[in-house]
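Weekly structure sync, notes
Attendees: PL, DS, HV (note-taker this week)

Item 1: Oxygen-insensitive NADPH nitroreductase
DS walked through the input record. Source organism listed as Endozoicomonas euniceicola. Sequence as pasted into the shared doc:
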Amino acid sequence: MNRPVIELLQSHRSIRKFTDQPIGDTLLRQLISAGQSAATSSNLQGASIIRVRNPRTREAMAELAGGQPYVASAAEFLVFCADLNRSAVCCEKEGQQLADGMTEHFIIATIDVALFAQNVVVAAESEGLGICYIGGIRNNPAKVSELIKLPKHVYPVFGLCLGYPDQNPELKPRLPVGMVLMEEEYQPVDEQLLAEYDETMRNYYHQRTKGKLNRVWSQEMSALLGKESRPHMKAFLASKGFKMR
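Item 1 (cont.): predicted structure, written out as tokens:
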């Protein structure tokens, strides 16, 4: 029976307060090994992980990510990178040259990173650890890359805080399965289900903030996607060799 695994996955929460307890090196390497066991397109293995321990670098990362203090205070902070540099070295070794800027290569490397990281997260939570993804490192990916010396053909996708939880937040409700699982072909958005989910989220935020926040998912999506988001990413990726052709 796989029910315990399903329950673990369904209990995921982002943790932003951690105890001072360190994560042993043996456990951390096991988590990374679990990440390596994720599926990888064409055996690309296009993920590299930078373990950031220098306190000054951590503080700088926390500031670059929008002032998120747990980047500095978590037991571990990892930067997950899409990496085609290794593949470029292999091409040179075999007398070839990496086909620069292919969109498909960008996609498969980025997917590799996401799959790798999610394996790490599930393994970590199975050991009682808490996690928080940090997409905010893309606020200034050039500076982040400089701090951790990323070469061409490598870009930082997101960070990950790891540590033992010092909080017990409520689960954030997800969309109804009926809105994301579709039979045979894409279905129009069910306005009734969307309205019900909006009310669920309104109640969640009301309870979480003790009445200070009155917000629904539709408003969140409008705020997120109704404006430009990190427009610098296109030029940054091109500068790293990800030119999307």
